[in-house]
Specification:
The protein is built from 9 helices and 6 strands, in the order E-H-H-H-H-H-E-H-E-H-E-H-E-E-H. The protein has 233 residues and is α/β, with parallel strands linked by helices. Helix 1 runs antiparallel to helix 4, helix 2 packs across helix 3 and helix 3 packs antiparallel against helix 4. The N and C termini lie close together (7 Å).
């Protein structure tokens, strides 16, 4: 069935994101060394993030709150006001970081827009994602911009219903197997996986490489050709 609409993830598919979080986490880990070794901090922070997702959602604001909570827990309440202020500044820097497009993104988006309806599908804090989309210079290429709290089968089904697109006619492009690929394949759609250099632990998933409607590429530059090939299957 021909592909009618292509969805594109935003963070780490169109622009850099996770690398900034990793750099912040390294600085945060060093900040807590009076109480715990830096190497032990990431696992504790990840555990807090998992616990808080249902309350704070995805994005820099929830990450900052989780950093504060983890600091209090790991220091047994001894973390001082100065360090809490530094952590808040870490979060503010993440929110204000300039949008840096991945190489080849403008050309790939333009090529896709010539042949398909485009939707931007991203999750995270509404205000932060809106500001990044505006700063990217890509917004006009997309027929629909969807900022969602989670990317799962019900969410994609709802979005495709609103767009009037049957799932088999939809292809999702992204770096996360868990959020961008697996739910869409489950609906009967197609997916193009574009791995990023680093992936957040909570975005890992297993997907059958032999799936007939899945392709994996090494760069966003390869996406238009991959989608065109999938449209012929």
């Amino acid at each position: 069935m021909p592909i009618e609409m292509v969805g594109l993830d935003a963070d780490d598919t169109l622009w850099h994101s996770e690398g900034h979080y990793r750099a912040t986490q390294e600085r945060y880990s060093a900040l807590l060394e009076p109480w715990i070794g830096a190497a032990e901090v990431p696992a504790a922070l990840l555990q807090t993030e998992r616990r808080n997702l249902a309350h704070f959602g995805y994005g820099a604001k929830g990450f900052t709150l989780s950093m504060i909570e983890t600091a209090i827990e790991l220091s047994k309440g001894e973390v001082d006001g100065h360090r809490i202020h530094v952590i808040i500044e870490f979060g503010r820097e993440l929110l204000n970081h300039p949008v840096e497009l991945l190489d080849g993104v403008p050309e790939a988006v333009e090529a896709l827009a010539d042949d398909f309806r485009l939707a931007l599908v991203t999750k995270g804090d509404l205000f932060h994602q809106e500001s990044k989309i505006a700063a990217s210079g890509l917004a006009d290429a997309f027929e629909r911009v969807e900022i969602v709290s989670e990317k799962d089968v019900p969410t994609y089904a709802r979005l495709l219903g609103a767009a009037g697109v049957d799932p088999p006619r939809f292809c999702m492009v992204g770096n996360s197997l868990r959020s961008d690929i697996a739910p869409v394949l489950a609906l009967g759609g197609a997916g193009v996986h574009v791995p990023y250099e680093v992936t957040w632990a909570m975005e890992h998933a297993e997907v059958d490489d032999t799936h007939p409607r899945l392709d994996r590429v090494g760069s966003i530059r390869d996406v238009p050709a991959a989608v065109a090939a999938l449209a012929e299957r």
